Every structure is written in structure tokens, then in C-alpha cells.
Amino acid sequence: MAIAIALIVLAGGSVLFYFLSPWHLTPLASNWGAIDDTIIITFWVTGVVFLAISLFMAVALIRYRHQHHRRALYEPENKRLELWLTGITTLGIAALLAPGLFVWGDFVRAPDDAHEVEVVGQQWHWSFRFPGRDGVFGDARNALIDVANPFGLVADDPHGQDDVLVDHPAVLLPVDRPVRVLLRSKDALHNFKVPAFRAKMDAVPGQVTSFWFTPTRTGEFQAVCAELCGIAHFAMRARVQVVEPQRFDAWLAEQPTHGERIARGPGNPEAGQAHYAACQACHGPRGQGQQATNAPRLAGLDARYLRRQLHNFRVGARGTREGDDFGRQMRPFAQSLPDEAAIRDLAAYIETLPLAPTAATVEGDRRLGERLYRSCATCHGPQGRGRAAYRAPRLAGMSDWYLVRQLEHFRAGIRGRHPQDAYGNQMVDMAQVLVDDAAVRSVVAYIGGLATEE
Amino acid sequence: MGEREYDASSHAPPAEVEEMELVHPRTFLGKYIWSQDAKVIAVQYALTATAIGLVALVLSLLMRLQLGFPNSLALIDPGSYLQYVTMHGMIMVVYLLTAIFLGGFGNYLIPLMCGARDMAFPYLNMLSYWVYLASVLILVAGFFVGGGSSGAGWTLYPPQSITPGTPGADAGIILMLVSLAVFIIGFTMGGLNYVVTVLQGRARGMTLMRLPLTVWGIFMATVMALLAFPALLVAVLMMLLDRLLGTSFFMPEMLSMGEGGEHRGGSPLLFQHLFWFFGHPEVYIVALPAFGIVSDLIAVHARKNIFGYRMMVWAIIIIGALSFVVWAHHMYVSGMSPYFGFLFATTTLVIAVPTAIKVYNWVLTLWRGNIHLTLPMLFAIGFLFTFVNGGLSGLFLGNVTVDVPLSDTYFVVGHFHMVMAVAPVLVIFGAIYHWYPKVTGRLLDTTLGKIHFWMTFLGTYAIYYPMHFMGLQGVPRRYYAYGETAFVSDSVQSLNAFITIAAFVVALAQLLFLYNLAWSYFRGREAGPNPWRATTLEWQTPHTPPRHGNFGEELPVVYRWPYDYSVPGVKADFIPQNVPPEAVEREAPVGRGGGS
To answer: What pTM value is reported for the model?
Structure first.
């Protein structure tokens, strides 16, 4: 008897849960209302069947429970009943399938007036490419990818010159304009998913996949990776802002084209040396860092990382939060740099500074640190020398007291939670691996040991 | 009807197969270790599968701990989390469920239910177990090598499964692939045995349409496995070559660790097609034995013939055949040609029809039955409820349009755990409560069993039902942590904590079950030869537990189908399959059978 009651309560509760649960589809922000409709239809049909079968079972259990003089009915088959049930089920299935296939017919054909954006996945971030003025993407190959050519564009393809490259995980899309998303991957399978858009697709290395949708409301959305792609899969995010078309056009015009990036070059170290004068009081003449001034070592960091951090300080993605006093001190210095060219030159200069050893100031359990460092090694390298492709700076030999402070800040979300600090956000997620101060000190102590092995 | 039993005849055809000669062991080792007796091999399979299954259970608890109470245990980092995910999934699907249904129940029940002395090839059968054990040991070795076991997800999708950036890409994945290859070899030895035994080893009078549905389910699942596992073997071998020799079957031009790799021209999608060509039938390889067994549990304990036997047999065959043409429904958003979506959504939803028929026939068997709420019956009801739930959520994921927002979310996790984890496992429990008395001669304790049932049934529902709604909200699966994800509401964290607690309750219940298994082996109530008053041949053996050779001097002769329960005009409410019509004890002609 208890089992019959349990079935009734569970079945009824399950249906109620559908209506009362706080967890439902995120508010729709694309044209795919039809997908939501098919989901709702399926909920209704399956809900009715679920209730019917469960309650039928419960009634059977109550009515035909074993009694001494009861004898079960002997009825091997009942062809009529079986045919009826088969027929009704077939109809029900057809009723579910048909709307699904109709909507799928729309899903597989992007409208002719759709504009295109390429989403490029790599472990563990996203970047974006627009076809530029000619409306045609230049050819690209994974084998051509390097630091100077992060999208792997084929050099002599004229279509590629005006391709607009967004080499960080934030993109804008115009509202109410159908967009065909082309997906490419540099390394593993990924899946570009914004729940509010409903549509999504895997990015597969070696081929181009696609889907389309029309953003129907402005706002900011978070994209995640929905196909397991390695240890930082969970921290692979992007920001998608849906904006009015004018704002989109203005933003797109600000982004560099492939041709501009190549022409611009990496930055001039000699010119950068002059800008370094403002830094050396705190960071030391050779960028070796000074604990007395709370300024970390800079020598050894790659130009890309330096550029990004200077940019973060300038726009307020770093050095604005409560609790980050030294970051706040740094911010005006970054803002005093005249322009992006100055940042490039300065970063190029710092990259040329020689590596000098730093003194170890942090004690910790290095064996624990070694285990903890496994989570760091994929991006920062097993020797802690950093990996440009992962946007991961060098750690080995950097000021250890500074690493401790930054890890503490990441853990607490003081650094990295600003929406524009994409890779900082990733570090916040990863730093949660370090559950307490001892863990932080241990991993930093281990990193210190890596430097002496060099 | 009523005058005459359905499908009974007094005619027994002459024996077509000669009596087989069995190797009777003389030593303890020969009897219990290097045994060629299918029943001993069955127990060996079941114990090994249970042991490795417990490892997978512990891994799932570690995962739940991280999800419910993030970073409370320092030992779980993102890499090890993915290793738990991978090993949990692979062990549960292949090394536990496949092994216990086919190697465990298949070995024990096929010869007994068919009326055979043993499997057709006993030596090969023994070898099958030892090869299986080797595959388990190779798999377990993955935990101890440098870099640990693979963390690629149980689907092992390349390229990431064999590139750095995924845990265990150096040694763990090699051991995983080798272990799978060895498992498939071992399974093939056993599988050929099961098929040949069912086709060639049946007792006189045991026509195919008189086989208990348990045998039909296991038989069809084995046929499917023999056809499906080769696809996995090919995929596994190719991936091993990609990993060890640098070939490019599945590896396209791509970066590895941010730098150019050596691979050119391979196709990651090719692997997915091969994997799911195996992987989808695999779902039914696990489900069909459960379907078969649960049919028999319901019939025996409701004292009623299974409703629509012939339809049930054909449904098993049709499901088995259709399950080979639905595989790409796992790949709707994989980047394969989207036009495949039309075809595979249609085949997938078509398969729901024979599946629904099975469900109808189960519940119609209960209707106007005489239902004994024994432990096997409780678990069978638990299965029905869970399976209906999981089957219906499959209609979301099989319908290509609906699948797009739900794929790779917790909706999928909820669905497949309901349909191919909890549902079959409930059947396994029901089956153990049902056949344990035959295996050991003693009944399992009822009170402990009831606690086990309620904690497991309600607990698993509390775990998996809410997951569908997390998936509806878009919460992605295989995530170590959610950090600040805009569309994941804060209440999801509380829900995750709740689910984790439920998971621990369910795990605790399994300890009770293990205790019951051990305690009852020594102290359980004596069962006698046929405690459930069942019709099938395994309950008609001269000894309980049955000895080597199963049936004593004479093999049984079969005169009727396996579902002669509550036949009108007959005194007892069951007639064993080996009772000829003239030996049935009838009531005086006045009485009339029937329901209330």
C-alpha cells in the first residue's frame, strides 16, 4: 500500500514541481521561441502520459493486492487492446515529432540576409572574427597559427586582409539582425553556448560548423563552453553583448583588421625605454621588483600579458576594487601612458629585460604545492614559464610575495571579477582550487623552486 | 478461454542435442576458481562487477561532494574531478552493467532457464571471465600511473582525450583503451557462448516462443553486443594508433599546448560515429536484459501471465534492430550534417513505440493480478516508475529541435541516469532478491531489503528528477565548479547540496544491501527449491543450489510456456514448465477462476 501512495505522491509531486520549481528556461533572447514551444508541448504530452501510467499502476496495486481467495485473471493476450494502444502511441509520437521536424527545417537553413561571425574556440577561451568590408572571410588554417597570427589566416588571401579580429573573449552583436555563427576550433572540441539564444553547436578542429539565430533583445549574455575540452572547460567563458546596430557598427570599426595588426608590428623597445622611466622607481631599473615598494618583478613577463594588464589598469578592470590598495596605486601610472602605441612599446621594452633571480620569502609545503600546481601547469607550463597561447604569464622566478597576494585576491574575487578582465575571471575560478592560505603558500613555494631549476 | 492452458501440449519432441560431458572438478580451486560451471562463473562475474561498481560509486560521491559543497575537500581539483567523471561513467556502463547482466545473470540463468546442463562451450566461458578480470585490473591500474586515469569523459572524444590539457592523456588513456579492447575480447568469448546455448542447448519442448522473457532479453542484448562492440574495438584501436604511433585517424590539423602538432586530416566526428554506433546499442544492451528480467519478476509476483507475450518478444527484437539506426541522436550538435537530424529524430521517436508497448504490457500484467508486494515486486515497480520517467525525458532529447538547448546540460545527466542507470540497477536488485534463494539456498532478509528499497528508490528520484530542471535552466554538465555564471541561479547551489545529501543516503543504503547479502548467506531463512512458486525451469532443479550439470540425471522436458499462473480450473496458481498437461491437478468443474 505504501508503494501505491508513494507512486501517487511522486507522480503528482513531479508534475507540481514543473509548475513550482524556480528552475526554468532562461528568458529567451533570440528568435527561437519555436524551440521553447516544442519543449512545452513535449512537457505536456509526456506529463499526461507519466501521470496516466503512474496512477494506473497505483490503482492496480491497490485494487489487486494479494488476498487469500483472489485469483489473477488468466488473459495471455488481447489483440484489440494491444492494437489500440499501439495506434494511439504512434499518433502521440507523430504529434511530438512533426513540430520538432518543422522547426528543425528552419534551424538548418540560415536566412539569406544573415551576417556572419566566426567564433574560434581554443583551450580555454573564445575569440571572434568578422569578414570585414568585403563580406568574405579569408582562408585560415590551424597550422599557420602563431602569436603574430592567432587566427591562422593565409597570408596571400586578399579576403583575409580586412577581416576584423577580436582576439579576446568578448563580442558585440547587433539586435534584430539574423547572424550565422561559423565555428572553428584550434585544438579540442568546444561548444559555443548562450542559453538565452537556445541554439548552439560544437566547434570541431578540422572543419567549420555553423548555426544561426537572431538576437531579439539587447543586453549582456554569458557564453560558456558546452563540450568537455579539458581541465579548464568549466572556466571557458565569453561575454556577448547584444546592442543597437549603430553601436555595433561603431564598435566593429574600432577593432583592428588583420592587415592593420600585421602593419602595426610588435612594438618598439627603444621607444618603450623612455616610458619605463616612470616605472623604475618602484619596479627597479631592471624590472627586478622591490618588495619595499610592493612592486613585483616585471622582467620575464611576455609583452602580451603586460599590454593586457596595462590596458586593464587603464580601463579600470584592475586597480579599482576595495582591498587592492597597491593596484589602486598602479592605476594612475598606467593611465599616464599617452596611447596604445606607448603601451605596446613599453611592453616590448620590458620583455627585453634580463631575468634576475628573486629572493624566496614564502615558506610552504612543496609536496602539497606540487600536487596543487597540477591544475596550474596546463596553462602556465610544467616549469612555470608561461604559455602565450593560453594567455598565461610566467610564474617561475616572479616575486613570490606578489604571487601570494594575487592568488589571495583571485580567491576572494578582488582581482579578476571585473567583466572586462576575461582571463582574470578564469583565474578566479581556478584559484578556488586553493582552499586556504596554506595551500596558497605551498603552491607559491613550489613555483619558487621551479625558478631555481632553470 | 480457461478450458485448456495456453500453449500447453503433451507432445515432447525427441532430443536433438546429445547429452554434454562436463568436466567435474575435484579440488577446491577447480570448483570455485578455475571453474567451468556457468553458475560459478556467474557469481565470479557478479562479484567482480560489484567490486568495481563500488569504486565507481565512491567516485560519484567525490563528484557530488565537489558539486554540493565546492572545494570542501582539497584533494578534488579540476583534473581529478574529470577523472572521477570519466571512470565513474565507463565503469558503470561497461564494467558493471554490461558485465553483470550478461556475464552474471546471463551465465546463471541461460543454461538453467533453457534446461541445459551448462553453456555450450564451458572452457571458453571460463576464459571469458578471466579475460574480463584482466580488463578490470588494467582499468584500475589507470588510477596508479603517472598523470592518473583518463579524464576525457566516458565518451573519450578525440582530439582532447589524447592531447595534453586533459588529465591522464599520457598513460591513463592508453590503459583505458587497452582495457576496453581486452574487455571486448573477453565479452566476445562469453557472448558467443550465450547465443549458441540459447539457440542450440534448449531442453526438449523448449521452443523459442516458450523461452522466459529473461532469456529473450539477455539473448537479444548479447546478439546486439556482438554486433556493436566491434565498432568500439575499431575506434579504440585507431585511437591507440593515433596516440602511440602518431597516426591521424581522428586527429585533424590542430594545435597542441598552443603549438602546431604533427597531425593532419583526421576526423574527430568519425570517432563519434563509431563510438555511438556502439554506444547507443549499448544502452539497450543494458536495458533489454532488464526488460526481460522485470517481465518475469512481475509475472511471478503478480501470479499472472505476462500480458501479450508474443508482442513482448517482438518488441525486444524490434527495439534491438532499431537501436542500430538511432546512434547519431547523440550528435545533434556535434557539427555533423544537420540534415541527419531529420532521419535520426524520426528513427529515435519510432523506437518509442515498441518501448511504450512493453510498458503498457507490464502495467496491464499488474491489472487484475494477485499482487504480492515482495521485494522483487517492489523493485520491479520502482523500475517501472523510474523507467517511464526516464523514457519520457528521452522524447525531449531524441526530438532534434528540443535537444538543441538541452544537450550537454544536466537534463541529459538526469535522463540517462534514470533510464539506464537507476532503472536497470533497480532490476538488478529485484533480480538478486528473486534469485538469491536459488543461488545460495537462503532468502535475503526482508526488513533490511525494504529499507534498502525505500532509500534507494526515493533517494535516486530525489537525485535525478531535479537535475532535469537544472538542465532546463542551461546548467552545463561536466563542470568542476560554476563560479559566477550569470544564468545559473544561486538556488542551483542549494539544490546541488540537497542532491549530494540524497546521494550519500543512497550510497548508505547500498552498504545495508551488502550487509544483507553477507548476513543472509549464513543466517538467512532456508528457501527451499521454489520459494516464489515460479514456473520456470531454474526453480525445478532437484538440488538447491543446483549442482554442476543443473538437473540431475534427466534433463527436463518442457510442455508449456513459462507463464501458466492462475490458470482457471487448476488447483495450484502456477504450473511449472516441465509439468505435462495430464499431470496437472485440476479443481472440481464447479469453481470458476477470475479476479475479484
So the answer is: 0.95
